[in-house]
Amino acid sequence: MRADAVLKKEEEAIITLMKERALGRCREAQRAYYECVRGRTLSVAWACREDARAMSACLNAHTNAATLARMKTQWTEAGKPSIEDRSRPPRCFDED
Q: Which pTM does this prediction carry?
């Protein structure tokens, strides 16, 4: 088994943590998009296109395969500490 191999359950927990971190890191892009869509209906499609792209690009930058692989490696190198309490992630996932 590879050194950075993880169980499916462990991988799912790491993915969840990765997504939560991405949401935190993209808070400003989300806020800009949500401000743009507030009070709009059909015009959202063209009026907020750039804000939506910026938010999507930010989220994609923080939730890609390379990020997941890096987090798996960090986690296994740290001895697979518990990640059940996502409000207090292991120190191996301290902000980069």
A: 0.77
DSSP secondary structure of 10-62:
HHHHHHHHHHHHHHHHTHHHHHHHHHHHTT-STTHHHHTHHHHHHHHHHHHHH
Closest alpha carbon to 19 in 85, 80, 86: 86
With tokens 């015009």, the residue in question is 43
Are 58 and 21 within 8 A, CB to CB? no
pLDDT by residue for the chain (96 residues), tens only, comes to: 565 688 899 899 999 999 999 999 999 999 999 999 999 999 999 999 999 999 999 999 999 999 999 999 988 888 887 776 555 666 666 655
8 Å CB contact between 48 and 40: yes
